[in-house]
Amino acid sequence: MKNLIIVCLTLAMVCLFAAGALAQMQTTQTSTANASASVSNDAQSARFAELEQKVADAKSAGDNAWMLTSAALVLMMTGPGLILFYGGLVRKKNVLSTMMQSFALMAIVTLLWGLVSYSLAFGSGNSFIGGLHNVFLRGVGAQPDADYASTIPLQTFMVYQLMFAIITPALITGAFAERMKFSAMAVFMVLWSLIVYAPMAHMVWGKGGLLNASLGGRFPCLDFAGGTVVHVTSGVSALVCALYLKPRLGYPKDAMPPHSVVLSFVGACLLWVGWFGFNAGSALSAGALATSAFVATHFGAAAATVGWSAVEWWHRGKPSALGAISGAVAGLVAITPASGFVSPMSAIAIGLAAGIVCYLMVTRVKSMFHYDDSLDAFGVHGAGGTLGALLTGIFASSAVNPIFKNAQGRTLASGLLEGNAHQIVNQLVGVAIAWGLAIVGTVAILKLVDATIGLRVPEDQEMQGLDLSQHGEEGYYWESPA
Amino acid sequence: MTKIEAIIQVSKLDAVKDALHEVGVEGMTVFEARGHGRQKGHTEFYRGREYTVDLIPKVKLELVVADEMAEKVVQSITTAARTGKIGDGKIFLSRIDEAIRIRNDERGDSVL
Fold this sequence. Notes:
The structure holds 2 protein chains of 2 kinds. Helix content of chain A is 68%, strand content 0%. In chain A, α2 (95-122) packs parallel to α4 (182-205). Chain A is mainly α. Chain A is elongated and about 140 Å long. In chain B, α1 (13-22) packs antiparallel against α2. Chain B is elongated and about 60 Å long. Classes of the chains: A mainly alpha, B alpha+beta.
């Protein structure tokens, strides 16, 4: 009996130990399992991070590819687009000098942009102008600037914006064509880039700019691709130049028809294509917003071509080729500020309006006031840009681009048609500032250049043509030996 | 020898050339010219500005033929170049004293 008890106790103890050991083993096994689980979690999150990085890299590569393409397209608008467009509109004796003005700006503005004007336009500063933090392109490298474009290198953003800074002054050359000294043009444009373009670009697009709609400006003015910054400033400055320089010798008595509408035709077609980079590129990414801007641009240009041609046909009995291409450019100008905010049907409305208004500007208003805006830089860019900027305030749609949000992140109405009547005021403020800055800045620069090196070529040189007097060449050298 | 200067419509040049070859004219000189007679010019519009183009493109032919050929040549030109409308052009005849072939100093009707 005693033995039985001992055996039982022993067994019980064995069982207890065994249970304990088992329990311990189980615990050990669990902790081993836990350990292996936590190891696999770390690997997973690392993989997720890696995948996320790869997705971001892919998006960045896609956006960057489109933005570099867009930058090249915008440069193509100046050369050869605008160069051919303007070159064809002048007389034979001034074709090279006219082309050379825009081409020289491709070089001069680029150097200036690198030295200082990028920083003045897009560096952090006050409400009116950027600071000097980015002079010599300091700090402008592969790292994106999240405020401007978070998926592309800041350097891409910089070179893209440079192309806008080139074409804007180049547009002005149409107003003083066939009579301004090359040297005076170069100095004028350097000063103009610094005094008019850089502050305007900063106010509308720069961090903390007075008119910036997406980075908290005091008067959020909607300007997707440069209706005020590019077209109003250049067009209004063009008018000031035309008035200040006085008409060309013989204007308006002598006939001064374009020497080759063919060149202008090719140039206008290049402008239309390049404008896709100008407007769709202003999305600063390759997503749906770029598509929307691309489509609006195209529809606006088409509608303006029809608008201008229809009015001309009715008014003059014939739809001219020069009219059709001028209409296209007018439409492209007017849709520029609106392109990223409006639907295709609104784009058609804006385009039609631009075609008709700009036709009246160049055919009626110009002769009424007797200014010689030789190539209609004001009639097309000043008038079309102003019209487009105001119509943007009417047609902007939050469904296309939800730019205004309240504190809770809810999307607010964009334009007048959606019930945001105040946007018209903001657009007017933007337009008024662009007009004011362009007038004051341009008058001051013209006076300065006039007083120092003189603006116009002497009369005999103007009659001889600026190709020979300014550059010592001729565009068409008929007597070249066989 | 007679010099025949004919100012004709640009579009009639080929017809006139063929007609001249048929009557045996072997050489001619052709100029692209601009001018107007009683025919008025036309109006062009560039961005609403009106330009009157009064000098219209024309072709001027010059040929020198033996005197006895002159009338036949004039007739073939007028027949070929006529549309019956204003702007068909004019023909002028004048006397030529001498013709010299540069290649070999040959002179007279045989040069033509």
